[in-house]
Design a protein that fits this description.
By secondary structure, the protein is mainly α. Helices cover 57% and strands 4% of the residues. Helix 2 packs across helix 5 and helix 7 packs across helix 11 (240-253).
Length: 295
């Protein structure tokens, strides 16, 4: 790996205290950029010009990389160069005058309440794996956590008596999320009856374990949710994040305060949360079109 990249990633981890997932994302973006320009040294970084960067991002666009992803990549590269300039490893930052790609407005994919109910009913609670999967799905929909937060929940992070859990979100920010009564009962039963069946030689602190007794991973849970969506007859795009979107949308549909939803989701800006109000308006317009006699 590029020594400068190593230094920067260490800086992000140690000095900026960014989460592992965030640092990994920055690393992937900058590594792709470095490979494209064969920039292995400070001297080769100096050779990258704004015109070359423009051509690079044009190539990404031709590869159907979304404007949102291109904007994130530009942000990562810009941060990397700013570090290199501050450390006097390079003299100039070729990204400074580049404009961010205009991100297309989009509405997140969600499930309606009937689809969510069907999905949550799919795991077989009579089996060890099914009871674990059912608990994970219920907890995910009950809290709106990110999948990375779900798989990293420790047994000690859950306060079942008070009905909340503590999680570490983006930027290593702690937040407390309330848990619904149904999810509280399922987690309580899982800890008492099912989780011990997953424990092998050691007992990891993570709440949810695999058949090998190791902590559940994001990739494994992604496969789990896709499997149950298929058996539930849900053929639209599905991922753990779709349940997070559905959680927020359904709360707002039932009168929840936008600020409260922002806190539960762990959004640093309410602007991010406001996308769910657009979903509500879009769905209302659709209902009006289908139902109004003069629609």
């Amino acid at each position: 790996m590029n020594p400068l990249l190593d230094e920067w990633l260490s800086y992000l981890t140690v000095e900026r205290n960014l989460s592992e997932n965030t640092v990994d994302a920055y690393s992937r973006d900058v590594q792709d950029f470095l490979r494209h320009f064969a920039a292995h040294t400070a001297a080769s970084l100096e050779l990258v010009k704004p015109s070359g960067l423009t051509a690079y991002f044009k190539k990404l666009m031709e590869q159907n990389i979304s404007a949102r992803s291109r904007g994130r990549k530009l942000s990562s590269i810009r941060m990397f160069y700013r570090y290199c300039v501050a450390e006097k490893r390079v003299e100039s930052n070729p990204t400074e005058n580049m404009e961010n790609p205009a991100a297309a407005k989009y509405l997140p994919h969600i499930l309606n309440t009937r689809q969510v109910e069907s999905l949550l009913k799919q795991p077989d609670n009579a089996t060890r794996d099914g009871a674990r999967d059912a608990t994970m799905l219920e907890l995910l929909y009950s809290t709106g956590m990110r999948v990375s937060e779900l798989v990293n929940v420790k047994t000690g992070d859950v306060n079942l008596g008070a009905g909340y859990l503590l999680t570490m979100g983006k930027g290593s920010k702690e937040r407390i999320i309330p848990i619904g009564e149904r999810a509280v009962e399922m987690v309580k039963n899982f800890i008492a009856r099912t989780r011990p069946l997953f424990i092998k030689k050691t007992n990891p602190p993570e709440l949810f374990l695999t058949r090998l007794g190791k902590p559940m991973t994001r990739q494994m849970f992604w496969r789990i949710i896709k499997k149950y969506a298929l058996t539930a007859g849900i053929h639209q795009k599905i991922s753990p994040h779709v349940l997070r979107h559905s959680f927020a949308t359904h709360l707002l549909e039932h009168g929840a305060d936008l600020r409260a939803v922002q806190m539960m989701l762990g959004h640093s800006s309410i602007t991010t949360t406001q996308i769910y109000t657009h979903i509500n308006r879009a769905r209302l317009a659709e209902i009006h079109l289908k139902s109004h006699p003069r629609g």
